[in-house]
Amino acid sequence: MSDHVDGPRSIGDPPADVTDLFAFTSPEDPRRTVLAMCVFPSAGETAVFSNAIEHAIAVRRVRVAGVGNAAKFQPAEEELRFSFVFQVLERDAAGKVLQRGTCALPDGRKIALVMNDERGAATPEGDVRVFAGLRSDPFYLAWIAATLTRVPNLLQHDNVLSLVVEFDTERMLNPTAGSLFGAIAETVPFGPPGRVSHPAARIDWVGKPEQTNIRLSNPGLTGADDLRDLWNQQNPFAIAGTLKPLFLQRLKDSFAEWDMRDGKADWTPEALAANANVFLDDFLLFDVAKPITDTSHLEIEKSTISGAPYLTGGGRTIDANVIDILLTWLINRDREFLLGGATGATKPGMKVFPYLATPNTQLQVVSESVELAASPDAVWDVIGRFNLDWHPLVAHVSLIGAGIGQLRRITTRDGGQIVERLEEIDDAKRHHRYAMVAGMPATHYAGTVDVQPKGSGSVAAWSVAYLADDQPDVIVHGRIAALLKTGMANLKNRFGAVT
Amino acid sequence: MSRLATDGEIAALNLDSACRQAWARFGRAPRPQGLAETIVDMERLKLQFFGDTAALDRLETLARVDGSPLVQAAAASAAHRFDEARRHLARAPHEAAKHQLLSIDQACGTDLDAVLTARRRLAGAGGRLEDLVPLGAVLADLERFAEAATVYREAHNAYSGTSPFPLAWVCFQLGQLWGELMPEPDLDQAAQWYRSAVAYLPFFPKARVHLAEIYLGQGQASEAEALLLPVLSSRDPEVRWRLGDVLLAQGRLEEAKAQLEVARLGFEELLERHLLAFADHAAEFYAGSGNDPRRALALARTNAANRPTRRAMGQAHALEAAA
Predict the structure, then answer these.
(1) N or C terminus of chain B: which is more exposed, having fewer CB within 10 Å?
(2) Do A449 and A388 share a domain, yes or no?
């Protein structure tokens, strides 16, 4: 995964785990640039930032220092740093958890923000605005890397914590002095008190996507040491000279293995070494004077290695298909585009600030249906009754009230109690809808029962949507599935199934 | 003594958040490789640091659905069903199984000298907290207490991450070492380490229970009570048991009786589902405030048969002698 869960040190404090970095032109205003980083892979709905970690995006001006097999991108010493820090949790008047933070800008200004405030926060001048909070994971991976098998998006429905900073490009980056930049995102623990001269080792950092999980830790290199933690502890823009040969050799070995995944050698040894050299300098290249699009990711590197001037702003947009772009480049050097098993993340990016899509809720659905050799009305006469007296897992039901709002208190054969409320009933359409009030470890629990004609018989369908609460989904799912399956099997016995 | 780490409330919230999300992903296809192992790690953290005993039930479900020998073994080990865990591991490649086998040997007190050698090798290779703490624990099992204390401190100093879980873990181990294992306990030192553990993770019932025991022994019943009240929602019956003891010491007999009854029910419910996991603690309960020496002896024997460590054997012998 892009950089998701990329080393043992970052596991255990998931907000320290940097998953992705983005750099693109603001869809709202082409004069502005957006930098965004994501942390906390598979964050749940209650995820918050650590108060012991600095989350930062660092940008340096870069020049093209070589082309073709001598391709090289040289970063400047001066660094622009956007640094987010967060406080311990507070509670608002309603008892809701609240987390405040601050983004420090390269010029020393600070912006106070509140996590998950959709509007973000801005400088008084309005030239910079920032956001921090839970969003739908914009990354998608639809390959099993070890076997190069296409699968649906492995991160479907996932969320991440994200940090977004958008600024006036002219004012912040002064592109007249050079419009090509390199960016990295990192998490750094606050140093112990009184040890200011010894900054704590960073936990994780990301430049281009997949330096760790695909390039350095190629699953095709069996028995190779895991270098990811060692890599994560390097200084971005300044990999330790003593370790460069180790990382470079790993990249060469890895790229050679990727090249042969399709059985064809598309890379000469010289070009492959040049490619490894370029990826060893791991920062996300973007040029603010050229167009950054969903397909321009890595174009700067690829053109330069191929000896041609680059034409786009490279970078990485929210919707860029970075895995397929990377795998295509490594495996067949852009001979034929390799499309994975998905064409997008769970949700596409938004065209408005903060650009990353709203978080996913994990509404799950269990459905059962059965074709029956009986008229719809005959079936509805049985399952349309809200008292569930036809269901074999139900030991007893007591009804409270009548019509819409009626409650049923169900005692199941295993002694459990469930209370449900009738929300809607339409006998003409043979449809009713109900909600669970108590008794199941779930929220947003809503069930529907429908009977429709089919041929000379009918189809009965029962569906429940819910969010697991206090119990893992697999357990709640199992309980609901058992209820529905047993009910449908009983109907089959009673009315006979259509064969 | 304390190091900067993510606030305990934030870490707890994020563990819960990540665990729920991992379970949601586990229910979907395709299932990412290693997801079941990640869930095992998170559920064990919830059991260890929050007294969430339902984690054992969830691990059972996970093992049943996942079906891999390593996950089945991890679930069995978490519930102290070590023989079953060994059977599962026999079906796994040795390289993948060896770490779990080492932990089982250590938990059962099997060939501790060989365990020590292996733990030294692991700790020497990485110098990481997660390797040093088990080394300290085996040294303590071998009653080499001074060395254990040194290794635990080294583990605390070696940690370079921000998660409070490993730090709370090593502090708890040091508290137990000074408070319970040393031939001449140093309760002030033990209390200091337990307080550090609680500072890292405020909702850490085991650390609060042990600290409350020290306070109670020093005649500070109110402090002990204040320590236990915030973790009453924990499913760990030891909280109610120790609160019962505290109330007894304060002469609040009816309240004590009620708390001890809740503790007894809690233990019985857990023993019904996970006998081996709770036999040792329940034996201690029934030998003390639970006031059922026969039940205590039966449970201590069950525990000693399952994991014949020096401690388990000592507990069983002491109860036999008292019977």
Answers:
(1) C
(2) yes
